[in-house]
Structures are given as C-alpha cells and as structure tokens.
Amino acid sequence: MSEVIAIEGGHKLNGTVVVSGAKNATVALIPAIVLADSPVTVYGVPNISDVDALGVLLRELNCEVDKNDDVLVVDPSNLKNIPLVSDAVDKLRASYYFMGALLGKYKRVKIKMPGGCYLGPRPIDLHLKGFEALGAKITYEDDTYLLEAEELIGTQIYLDFASVGATINIMLAAVRAKGKTVIENAAKEPEIIDVVNLLTKMGAKIRGAGTDTITIEGVEHLKGCTHEIIPDRIEAGTFLIMAAAAGERVIIQNIIPQHLESLISKLKEMGVKMENVGDSIIVYGDNKNFNAVDVRTQVYPGFATDLQQPLTALLTQANGQSQVIETIYPERFRHCEQLNKMGANIELDESMCYINGKTPLKGAKVEATDLRCGAALLIAGLIADGITEISNVYHIDRGYANIDQKLITLGAVIRRIKVDD
Ligand code: EPZ
Questions:
Q1: Which residue, of 14, 122, 158, 160, is most buried by count of CB atoms within 10 Å of its CB?
Q2: Is 195 in the pocket of ligand 1 (CB under 6 A)?
Q3: How far apart are the first and last CA of the chain?
Q4: Rounded to an integer, what distance in angstroms lies between the CA atom of residue 360 and that of residue 211?
Q5: Separation in Å, CA 404 to CA 45, 245, 272, 409
Q6: Residue 327 confidence (pLDDT)
Q7: How many CB atoms neighbour CB 78 within 10 A?
Q8: For the chain, what is the radius of gyration of the CA atoms?
Q9: φ/ψ (deg, to 5) at 165
Q10: How far apart are CA 260 and CA 268, in angstroms?
Q11: pLDDT at position 4
Q12: Residue-level pLDDT at 419
C-alpha cells in the first residue's frame, strides 16, 4: 500500500499556519547527541519521517529514545558503537552525520553509504577528506565505510565547496580531536549555527559559526543539555509561496525573517504583498498579477536551492518568461516534467530552466520525485482547475510536518488516499 494526496484546486487559503522546527538542523542535531555522555533534551522537533528513521538508528546504538509530541529526550550514556548497516540508514542522507559524531567520540565508526533524495550525484568526498585530515583511516567495501583513528589531531581544513553536510560532519569529529581545527570556506547556513549552539551547550569550544571560517578547540568530554530547534526556513518559504499562489490573507508564524531575505526579495520583485509582524509574515493575496523573475540558487545567504522547486510552481503564474539557474544541484529539475503535465510551459536547459507564464494549470495525476518537487506539486494543486493526485507522498512526509492538516486549517480541500502498489 502507498499513499496519494488528492487536492481540489481553487480554494482560497486564509488564516494562520505555524512553522515547525527545521528539518535540516534536526537531522544533524540528533546524531550530534551521541557525542554527549548524558541525556539531551531537544524541543521543537518536527513530526517528520526523517526523525523517526534517526530514532531507529539511535536505538540500534542502544541509546534510550523518548519522543513526546515535539520534545525528544535521548540518553546516550549506554551507547554501543555497533556498525550502522540496517535499512534505516538508507532512509535519509543525513545518516552520515553519525560518521563524524561516532568517529569523534569513539575514534571508530562503521556505516553504510547513506540514502536520500535523488538530486543528481551527491558525493561525500569533502566529508571524507576532512576526516582523513583529522587522522582517520578510511576503508570502503560492500557499500560500507569503516573510519578508524588512533587519535584525531586538530588541523586546517579547506572545503573546495561550502558544503553544509561536510561543514557539520567535520565539526562533529573535530569537537573531540586534540587541539585546534580551522574549517575554511565553511558553509554559513542557519542550521549550522543551530548545531553549533547545541554543541556549545554540551561544552564544545567553537567560534565563527555563520562565517566562512569556523574554529574548533577539541575537548575531552561533552555533556547532556537542552536545546530548542530553530524554525524551518524552507517550510516557512514554502508556505510564503503557497500563500502568494492561493492565499487571500495568510499569517505564517514562527519565522526568522532574516533567514528568508533572498526569497522575500524575490517575492516582492514578483509583486507579492507581504508584511512583517514580529515572528510572523502576513501574505496578502489580492494581487495575482505576478512579474516574471530570474532566480540563481546560491549557498546561504543566497537563494536557497531547496526553494527553487516550490517557487517554480508560482512562476508558472507570472506574466512572461522567468528563469531558474541551479548552481548547487545541476540536475534538480525533475519537478518541471510533473508541472508541465498540469499545463505549465517549462523548458529545460543545462543546469537551468525557463518558465513561460502565465499558464492556467489543470488537475492531473503527478509524481513527487523528491521532497521539494512534492512541495511544488502541492502548490500547483492548490491553484489548478480540478483534482490533482500526487503519488510518492512519502517524499513530502520526510520534510513537511503534518502538511495535510496545516493546509486543511488554511482552507485547502486535500485528502490522503491509500492505493495498492
Ligand atoms: C543540505 O544537503 C540539505 N540537506 C539539502 O536539503 C540542501 O539542498 C543542501 O544542504 C544545500 O543547501 C540537509 O541538510 C539534510 P551540500 P547537503 O553538502 O549537506 C556537493 C532538502 O530538500 N558536495 O551543501 O548534502 C553536492 O553534490 C535537502 O531539505 C560534494 O561535491 O548539501 C552538491 O552539489 C535536499 N561533495 C553541493 O555540494 C561533498 O562531499 C551541495 O551539497 C558534499 C557535497
């Protein structure tokens, strides 16, 4: 059995939606917990399937895991550093954060190559280069990595690309290395700062998070603590786009506006009316006459690659030709074919696409090829004429907590249907 989401388009969205905790911080914070010698409590944990998959891995490591609504308590004090080779590793790419954390704490880790969305090639060479620079010996056979080190020695590491994953993973090992590690050309995403805040509460000594140079002084022990996860800027951005597309007056609550500056300026350029009110943004949907715009994805604080797919759904409603240039994942365009099935007019080119608007969309049977493609199809379904059925809904559930309920509360007509595979 699998699930399909069916949306009846044309219903205006009104009211308030509250953004959940950030998936891309959460999936790094949870593996980071194993570095502690005593229990860690995390608040604001989103109800997404990636969290469940990480919980399975923590239990395989003999951690006590207790999740109650959005509060997660993990006790890693009796951790057993067994090889992580079960299917749960395949569920998400972020399983690889256990590499840095377990290597840092035990100087040894065995783990299967991680899974995750297909967005084109997704190597982990920068992670491995960082671990080797710290002194790890790495072997790879049967799709499984073994990393071992007599000891980890702090060093200077220059990242060829400001990789989010590599920056975090190297930090997770470096916090328990001997001496100082400097990561140059580090990623600056807000989720990295959130992970550093957790590690600092555990007793780590880290400076420069949010800049392109992060300095870590290794420490002997890290202790338990409590932490609240930052709001999910990608979920918030997805709701801003949804509200622009299908909203009349939508309040998106639990936002850090500075995390969304690049999207907000693009939406303003399109002619979307928005107002900042404290930790919320109100989107007024009276103007549906959008200007076409050009988007180029960049590392933070540039335009987030994770938001180019949802925005593409809105750009089908802009007057004229927009273009999206993807500099992070050149193959992140599988949503275009699905949107074209609904009447969009999108042409693909090398690492970019042209969106020719404004095109009326009509309901169709479409497939979520990855998480953010799923988000784009939800947006298109909300404004299409008729019923849109989105299959492979599990992709959407990896990154959007309670998305159906949140949309129904705003007035969408949406339901899940179980279908035979
Ligand atoms: C994180 O992925 C996010 N995932 C992605 O979000 C996000 O799109 C991406 O950062 C960019 O912002 C999580 O945080 C769990 P990268 P990550 O390492 O860390 C290349 C979503 O939709 N690269 O910054 O994997 C890589 O191929 C997901 O929520 C190497 O070449 O991204 C890609 O082209 C999708 N070698 C680029 O860098 C490496 O060792 C960006 O990768 C690592 C990365």
A1: 14
A2: no
A3: 5
A4: 43
A5: 18, 17, 24, 9
A6: 97
A7: 9
A8: 21
A9: -60, -45
A10: 12
A11: 97
A12: 86
Residue 64 and residue 77: Cα distance in Å, rounded?
A: 9
Show the DSSP H helices in 254-412 as ranges.
261-270, 305-315, 334-341, 371-383, 394-397, 403-409
Mean pLDDT, range 301-305, rounded to an integer = 98
DSSP class of residue 362 equals B
Report the distance separating Cα 414 and Cα 395, nearest Å.
17
Tell whether omega for the bond before 39 is within 30 degrees of 0, i.e. cis.
no
Q: Which two tokens stand for residue 267?
A: 């939406």
Q: Residue 421: helix, strand or coil by DSSP? A: coil
C-alpha–C-alpha distance, residues 267 and 244, integer Å: 8
* Beta partners for residue 291, in sequence order: 319
Mean pLDDT, the chain, whole residue set: 96
Locate tokens 């199809």: which residue?
A: 377
3-class secondary structure, 379: helix
Pairing of strands 280-284, 294-296: unpaired
Q: Whose CA is nearest to atom 26 of ligand 1?
A: 122
At 85-116, the pLDDT tens digits run 999 998 888 999 999 999 999 999 999 987 66
> Is the pLDDT reported for residue 142 higher than 90?
no
123 lines ligand 1 (CB under 6 A): yes
Nearest atom within ligand 1 for CA of residue 116? 35
161 lines ligand 1 (CB under 6 A): yes
pLDDT at 117 over 70: no
Give distance in angstroms: CA of 138 to centre of ligand 1: 21
Q: How far apart are CA 356 and CA 323, in angstroms?
A: 9
